[in-house]
Design a protein that fits this description.
The protein is an alpha+beta fold. The protein has five helices and twelve strands. The chain has a six-stranded antiparallel sheet. A hairpin with a 3-residue loop joins strand 1 and strand 2. It is globular, with a radius of gyration of 17 Å.
């Protein structure tokens, strides 16, 4: 069986799982990412396919925190495989997600901190209502999984690259807390990226080549 055909079959099975029970199978997702990261030819083929796919290109791009490449997406469930390339000096704000996901660091590292609160998640929540559950370094070839209701913060080493498998949306909104103003903000859509220009896209591909994460001819 062709490598990509096997990937498509495995990904389809993962997309069809009951993601409300993420805690029961996140180890399986992590194993899938480990296998995928070890097969440079698959990541290279997915990246090459992305360059010819207008739909995936329109979802890829960059925001103030990172560049993202949507390598594959299950159109029925919205489950995505992404490459994230973090920019310099990224320290994000305490936040949750609308979905659950597993992530593997391919290059670089970051400090990952899980937070908790005994308060309700509403407009009255303040930074002092949060306490640290766990703080650890996620280094190259390390993984972690986050349920959609978890609160966390990441402090990322510049040019860190991660491979992330993200499930379908489980809720309508997500939040972050502005640590300077100590206010909570709720959002519907994620921070939509600014689409890559041709030069930005080529620079991103060249960067991944230089880090020996993909092999794609000029």
């Amino acid at each position: 069986m062709h490598l990509l055909e096997k990937f498509y079959e495995d990904f389809s099975r993962i997309a069809q799982l009951d993601w409300s029970q993420f805690h029961k199978f996140n180890a399986h997702i992590e194993n899938f990412l480990v296998t995928l990261a070890s097969r440079q030819e698959i990541l290279s083929s997915l990246t090459k396919n992305l360059l010819a796919n207008r739909d995936l290109l329109s979802l890829s791009g960059e925001n103030p925190l990172l560049k993202k490449l949507i390598l594959y997406k299950d159109v029925l469930t919205g489950t995505e495989l992404r490459l994230h390339i973090f920019k310099e000096g990224v320290i994000d704000k305490p936040h949750d997600h609308r979905l659950s996901f597993s992530t593997m660091v391919l290059n670089g590292s970051y400090r990952h901190t899980l937070l908790s609160t005994k308060k309700d998640i509403n407009e009255l929540l303040k930074i002092e209502d949060l306490s640290i559950l766990l703080s650890h370094d996620v280094r190259e070839n390390s993984l972690y999984s986050i349920n959609h209701d978890a609160i966390h913060v990441t402090e990322v080493v510049p040019e860190t690259v991660s491979l992330s498998l993200r499930g379908p949306y489980m809720k309508e909104k997500w939040f972050n807390i502005d640590t300077e103003k100590n206010n909570i903000f709720f959002f519907g859509d994620s921070n939509l990226p600014t689409s890559f220009s041709y030069t930005q896209l080529q620079d991103t591909i060249d960067f991944l080549r230089q880090k020996h994460l993909i092999i794609i001819g000029d």
